[in-house]
Write a structure and sequence with these properties.
This protein has helices spanning 2-6, 12-28, 30-41, 48-69, 73-91, 97-109, 122-126, 138-153, 158-168, 174-186, 190-199, 205-220, 226-235, 243-258, 321-335, 342-358, 366-374, 386-397, 404-413, 417-420, 432-440, 444-457, 459-475, 481-492, 501-518, 542-547, 554-566, 573-581, 590-610, 614-622, 626-642, 654-663, 670-688; strands spanning 270-276, 284-293, 296-305, 309-318, 338-340. The chain is mostly helical. It folds into 5 domains: 2-112; 138-258; 270-374, no CATH class; 386-518, no CATH class; 527-688, no CATH class. The chain has a 5-stranded antiparallel sheet, sandwiched between helices. Strand 3 and strand 4 form a beta hairpin. Helix 3 runs parallel beside helix 5, helix 12 runs parallel beside helix 14 and helix 18 runs antiparallel to helix 24 (481-492). InterPro entries: YgfB-like.
Length: 689
């Protein structure tokens, strides 16, 4: 809870850090979410501190939603803990109507289904400041008052008003929600017709149907209007194939018979620039479109996610051209966005629409305004396979005429991309399913093998990610598009995953992420910094006594430990100690077991110290006989084969590549033996920098 206290200082950068840090803490410890809910409910009227707490709870809900989308149970656990706290607060009488509205806004803002504990009962509604007055019916008075207040707060902007109303919905009794929609759509002024269009994209099928039926009633009264009619022409294709869409389809046929003309909004704004990020490992992608109309400027923002559709869409008004440029620059810096064509933006959004509808999820309502600002009124969902997507790219990236050998060579060369493209750091598997799979493995080798099998089930996913990446790069005129396109083709054609470097990089990064989580110590701690008490000094022949009859020698162990202590990413002892312990010749008592670990750690520390000096290390190698050298090399090679993932490709130097090459060989020439000590010393010096 200390992060919450520090976040109240008003410093925006500090608040951003606190939100990110606390959301991670909430996912790890769901009980914290319940505690925050309880603290907010502790005061009858939420004050500044409650607002700060709500701000961080908002960050936690956002993280929980993303975790759920990415197949992680931590998101559901956090939401469940908070919802149970809300139920308890209501039972104890601490969840006031004001609290319910606050929590309803948080759940709604994050696209989550709010818990029923937030629903106000009829008495709460009727006793509120919006209680009916005069001779109007109670429901009519409540709604009239509600709309008047929120319309004023929204400045008459339909989308802002829609957002404010939608955030109130979770605290309303279900029957009142439908009444709000029916009341609104039945109003004659244009603002409410716009609201009806937004509600056609509501996640709730019941509210979509209520909006569609209300629009049908407007048409019957001759009050639909050509502008709304033109919106419905493209909106019907954005809706799931349910009862609401059937009503809209019937409405459009009836409007045609009645001779209702379409009347599109005023001319769209001019697109001056468009930028798009490359998709991350979860399939998320950001798009920005700079718009100008006379002296007015806006920045349209979109968030698309593979398998989930259009997740966010909104426009930011910019006071000046410099303000607009600053926002674009920030986006480019934060997500590595590239300049793309408006045609690419339309294609990407069309595919995202189809993605969402495949899950019966309409896009966010903000997309309606954005497509009209950009002049994309003809935008329709476009279902296309990965092969179709690649087919559209073939001319742009000049792969259609390549020979199979040329494609194979290009796939092989894609290994170089990892060192140049920072965004690839986000490409790894992080679902609970893959974590459970790796945790169940009995060794690192077994985990690596299990992960390859898992990636086989994800072949289509990564083929799509590679193809979408190629699409962005092609739109940006980047020559790397071809490498991603042929890698996607290789997956679709059933190529061995281990022969597609981009998949190998996904494998490596997934292993790295898993190994970092599996350790108990700080991943940034160097080997020398691991705190250990000073054990008794090793007696002569003591280490060998544990290895007697095991088939391996002390030289083998020291070769193995050498590779362990020089890896760029620290390997936690629980990852490599089992291999050394397996070498002992007989079952050990608890005392013997603990003493052997002490001896191993002391050897590792001594090797780590000596590795810093090329001269000392060379002398130690030279003192070994030919057979002992060969045993040492065998231990080094064993560790090298088990822990390749501890050597990230990004930032690797030529000396590192040469060291790994030598470490993987069964025998070395005299010249190669001479190379080893300087290479090891170079690596160790970089570890300590």
């Amino acid at each position: 809870m200390a992060a919450l206290e520090r976040a109240t200082d008003g410093n925006m950068e500090h608040r951003r850090w606190a939100r990110e840090r606390f959301s991670a803490d909430l996912l790890d410890q769901p009980v914290l979410g319940a505690q925050v809910v309880a603290q907010i409910c502790a005061s009858a009227e939420p004050g500044p501190r409650a607002e700060h707490l709500a701000d961080l709870l908002d960050a936690g809900l956002d993280a929980a939603r993303i975790a759920q989308e990415n197949g992680k149970a931590s998101g559901a656990r956090l939401i469940q803990a908070m919802e149970e706290a809300l139920v308890l607060a209501r039972q104890q009488g601490r969840l006031t109507p004001v609290h319910s509205l606050l929590f309803a806004r948080l759940w709604s803002q994050n696209g989550l289904t709010a818990p029923t504990a937030l629903v106000l009962n009829s008495d709460d509604v009727l006793q509120s400041d919006r209680s009916p007055k005069g001779t109007s019916s109670e429901g009519e008075a409540i709604l009239t008052d509600l709309f008047a207040e929120l319309t004023e707060q929204a400045g008459g902007d339909p989308l802002t008003l829609h957002t404010a109303l939608t955030e109130c919905f979770p605290s309303m009794p279900p029957e009142l929600r439908a009444q709000v929609v029916a009341y609104s759509v039945g109003r004659s002024d244009p603002l409410h017709a716009d609201l009806a269009c937004f509600w056609l994209l509501n996640p709730s099928p019941e509210l979509r149907l209520a909006a569609a039926q209300g629009l049908g009633a407007r048409l019957a009264k001759g009050a639909l209007g050509g502008r709304i009619h033109s919106k419905l022409v493209f909106l019907r294709s954005w809706m799931p194939a349910d009862a609401a869409r059937q009503v809209i389809d019937a409405l459009l046929k009836d409007a045609l018979r009645r001779g209702v003309q379409t009347d599109a909004d005023k001319s769209p704004w001019k697109i001056t620039e468009a930028r798009a990020s490359l998709p991350d490992g979860s399939g998320a992608q950001s798009i920005a479109v700079a718009l100008q109309h006379g002296s007015n400027r806006k920045l349209a923002m979109l968030l698309l996610k593979q398998g989930h559709g259009v997740k966010d869409a909104y426009a930011i008004s910019c006071r000046t051209a410099a303000n607009l440029k600053s926002l674009l620059t920030r986006m480019t810096k934060e997500v590595g966005a590239l300049k793309v064509t408006s045609g690419y933006v339309q294609s990407a959004v069309a595919a995202a629409l189809a993605d969402g509808l495949a899950q019966d999820q309409p896009p966010v309502p903000g997309l309606i305004d954005l497509v009209q600002l950009c002049g994309f009124d003809a935008l329709r969902p476009e279902t296309s396979s990965t092969a179709d997507l690649l087919g559209r790219l073939s001319g742009a990236v000049q792969i259609a005429t390549m020979t199979p050998k040329a494609r194979g060579d290009l796939v092989a060369k894609s290994d170089e991309l990892w060192e140049r493209l920072d965004f690839l750091d986000s490409w790894f598997e992080d679902s609970d399913a893959v974590q459970d799979l790796l945790n169940a493995a009995r060794s690192t080798k077994a985990a690596e093998a299990a992960l390859w099998k898992w990636l086989e089930t994800r072949r289509d996913w990564w083929a799509r990610i590679f193809a979408r990446t190629a699409e962005v790069l092609a739109a940006a005129g980047d020559k790397d598009a071809a490498a991603f396109a042929v890698s996607s083709m290789a997956l679709l054609d059933g190529a061995n995953l281990k022969k597609v470097p981009l998949v190998g990089d996904v494998h490596t990064q997934t292993m790295q992420a898993w190994e970092e989580r599996s350790g108990d110590n700080d991943a940034k701690m160097s080997f020398e910094e691991v705190p250990m008490e000073s054990p008794p000094a090793e007696k002569k022949g003591e280490f060998n006594s544990y290895l007697k009859g095991s088939g391996i020698s002390l030289d083998w162990v020291e070769g193995y430990l050498t590779f362990i202590v020089i890896t760029p990413k620290m390997l936690q002892p629980n990852l490599w100690l089992p291999q050394v312990l397996a070498a002992t010749s007989a079952p050990l008592t608890q005392t013997e077991f603990l003493r052997f670990i002490e001896l191993v750690m002391m050897r590792a520390q001594a090797i780590s110290d000596m590795a810093s000096s090329a001269q000392d290390f060379a002398a130690a190698l030279a003192a070994r006989s030919t057979k002992k050298k060969q045993d040492w090399l065998a231990g080094l090679a064993t560790a090298a084969s088990e822990f390749k993932s501890a050597w990230p490709k990004k930032g690797m130097k030529p000396e590192d590549i040469r060291l790994l090459t030598l470490a993987g060989r069964e025998a070395l020439t005299p010249d190669e033996w001479a190379e080893l000590a300087p290479l090891i010393a170079f690596r160790q010096s970089r570890n300590r920098d």
